[in-house]
Amino acid sequence: DTEVTQTPKHLVMGMTNKKSLKCEQHMGHRAMYWYKQKAKKPPELMFVYSYEKLSINESVPSRFSPECPNSSLLNLHLHALQPEDSALYLCASSLLAGTSTDTQYFGPGTRLTVL
Amino acid sequence: EDQVTQSPEALRLQEGESSSLNCSYTVSGLRGLFWYRQDPGKGPEFLFTLYSAGEEKEKERLKATLTKKESFLHITAPKPEDSATYLCAVQAGGSGTYKYIFGTGTRLKVLA
After folding, report:
1. What pLDDT is stored for residue B92 in this prediction?
2. Interface contact B44-A88, CB threshold 8 A
3. Of the candidates B34, B97, B103, which has its C-beta nearest A103's C-beta?
4. Which residues of chain A make contact with B43, given a CB cutoff of 8 A?
5. B76-105 pLDDT per residue, tens
6. Which of A102, B22, B72, B86 is the most buried (most CB within 10 A)?
7. How far does CA A63 lie from the centroid of its chain?
8. Which residues of A touch B42 (CB under 8 A)?
9. Which residues of A touch B86 (CB under 8 A)?
10. Of the candidates A65, A107, A58, A63, the residue with the CA atom closest to the CA atom of residue A85
11. Of A11, A19, A1, A2, whose CA–CA distance to A94 is shortest?
12. Span A57-68, average pLDDT
């Protein structure tokens, strides 16, 4: 089973709201990722967690705050977002962590709209 | 600068008309090349991983190949359900570094 789940599927929020995106995998994977994807563009890497520790932050604004409470769960906390942050947010996981070469498996994404 | 380029940007095929999609890369220290299929509004679905030049992988109507400069995704006798955006991604970098770079994708439309 290579399933990564994400909730919610859709989210609409105002610029002053605080919301969170959730991602889960139960495959025993040691690395988890957040990506942002705008329409007709490829996914852009935001954060990488290895063994529940943040290992890569691709210069993402502080209004995006990731959290990895345990090895199966990854959250993305959102605060004071801008309309240009509207996008499909994808979570992925891979068995191997760190800089090992390994396949990433993606969730279905959360469609975020910021008003 | 590390770069991954896919061509064509869009492709329309008749059902049964075979073709190939290209993924060219310029990276230092290739560690793996990955092919994904993505349907509108959904997450990428993993298809293949290729690690070294000369390697080939097959799955149903799809076959992926890898050379030192590019990868091809061959689609044999496509069906309308093969319509999707096909993304390649490259993992690169030496020890202690991490790069995972997606190409811009090829939007494939297969007509019945």
Report:
1. 82
2. no
3. B34
4. 4, 6, 90, 92, 106-109
5. 999 999 999 999 999 887 666 677 899 999
6. B86
7. 14
8. 108-109
9. none
10. A63
11. A2
12. 93
How many residues are there in chain A? Answer: 115
Q: Residue A93, CB half-sphere, CA atoms under 13 Å: how many?
A: 25
Cα-to-chain-centroid distance, residue B111: 21
- Please state, rounded to an integer, the average pLDDT across all residues of chain B: 93
Cross-chain CB nearest to B95 (options A99, A102, A103): A99
Tell me if chain A has a CB within 8 Å of the CB of B40: no
Res A96: pLDDT: 79
Whether the pLDDT of residue A40 is over 80: the answer is yes
Q: What is the DSSP letter of B82?
A: G
Percentage above 90 pLDDT, chain B: 79
Q: Does domain B3-111 bear CATH number 2.60.40.10? A: yes
Q: Where are the domains of chain B?
A: 3-111
